[in-house]
Structure formats: structure tokens, C-alpha cells
Amino acid sequence: MATVLYITAHPLDPQESFSLAVGERFIEAYREANPTDEVVHLDMYKENIPPFDADVLRGWAKLRSGSALDQLSDAERSKVTRLEEIVDQYVAADKYVYVSPMWNFSIPPVLKAYTDATSIPGKTFKYTSDGPVGLLPGKKALHIQASGSVYSEGPLASIEMGYSYLKKVLGFYGIQSIEAIWVEGTASSERAPAIKERAIARAKEVAQRF
């Protein structure tokens, strides 16, 4: 049995969001193909993801200097402990499905906060004399991304920083099996329904082998 983290980053629901609509159909097809796997839904707009603020940085510094957890302030201890829970859950999973819209050429801020929370030395990567090494080889990931224009190819491809960012981060973790489902060009109200249906068809196909 594998554990899948279904990571969504859109404040609306599948009836209003192209990315969530496709993601929902992907998960349905995945569950049908893999009934014994565990799918854990993490809604980035409902999760408690502490930002890297002064409490976190000072708390980590105290722990590195030898302080015990109970010697941290309440705020430091609460945030550091929560970040530990987040990255441990991430490391324990086998597969990752990210679902997000493209906002300002990139991912929503809540998803960036989550990637910060999972980019922890000694957990998802480590430093060596030859440079950083990813600690999550053998795992796989999928990113479903919706956008008003086309960014996977053509003149706007050079400013696409959503999927390309996640691919670099996941590669840094040692994850080499990374796929993308693009739901793009949805700003055209006439073409949007067909674009969504094509993306759903691809999602169902990918789900069978993911």
C-alpha cells in the first residue's frame, strides 16, 4: 500500500476551479485503480503552515545550540513542532499530487509556504562535501496546473515559474519521476470547456499508471 499526498492550493471548490476539477477526477480514477492506497488530502488553505518568521528561526537556532524543546518560547515551540510534523508527513509519503492555479506566473503563496516547510536539511535533502543530495529517491510526483494562457510551450514558456519551480524543488529532494497536466488557455470562455475535458481525460490516463 502506498500513501499519496493530494496537495491542493486553491481557495474555491472544484465547480469554480479548473485545476481542482481536474485534480478531483484524477483522484477518483486513481482510487479506482489503486483501492488499497491511502490518499491524504492537504488543503493548503486549511492547513496550519507556519511561515519562516523570527519565532521559527530563533527556535531552530536554540535547538542547534543544544537547548531542549521545552526551553523554547511557546510560540517558537509551537511553530517548530508543527513544521516537524509537516516534513515528517511529507517524507513518509510515497507519491505527491500538487494541484494549483498559476498566479502571477507562479504558484499561490500558500503552496510556496508548504514547499518551504518541506525543504528541511536532514529530512528531504542533506549537505555533503560534494554538495546537496536529495533524500527522497524513488518517489514520484504530479503537478496539475491551470492557467488562463498557454505556458507549457510557445512565447510565454520562458516566464512559466509554477511547474518549473516545483520540478526544481522536487528534483532537489531526489524525486526524478515528475509529470505535469496542463489545464491552460482557460481565459477563452469558448474553448475552456473543451480544454477542461481534455485535461480530465489526460488525468484519468495518468491515474492508471501513477
TrEMBL record:
| Note describing how the cofactor binds | Binds 1 FMN per subunit.
> Can you give the residue ranges of the Flavodoxin-like fold domain?
3-205
List the EC numbers from the record: 1.6.5.-, 1.7.1.17
Instruction: List the signal peptide residues.
Output: none
The family database entries (Gene3D superfamilies) matched by this protein are listed as: 3.40.50.360
- InterPro entries the UniProt entry points to: Flavodoxin_fold, Flavoprotein-like_sf, FMN-dep_NADH:Q_OxRdtase_AzoR1, NADH:quinone_OxRdtase_FMN_depd
Q: What class of enzyme is it?
A: oxidoreductase
Going by the entry's taxonomy, the superkingdom of the source organism is recorded as Bacteria
User: Which Pfam families does the annotation name?
Assistant: Flavodoxin_2
* Residues that, per the record, bind FMN: 17-19, 102-105
Keyword presence, Iron: no
Tell me the cofactors it needs. FMN
Q: What PANTHER family has UniProt attached to this entry?
A: FMN-DEPENDENT NADH-AZOREDUCTASE 1, FMN-DEPENDENT NADH:QUINONE OXIDOREDUCTASE
Family note: Belongs to the azoreductase type 1 family.
- Which purpose does this protein serve, as stated in its record? Also exhibits azoreductase activity. Catalyzes the reductive cleavage of the azo bond in aromatic azo compounds to the corresponding amines.
Tell me what this protein is called: FMN dependent NADH:quinone oxidoreductase
Native source organism of the sequence: Cohnella xylanilytica
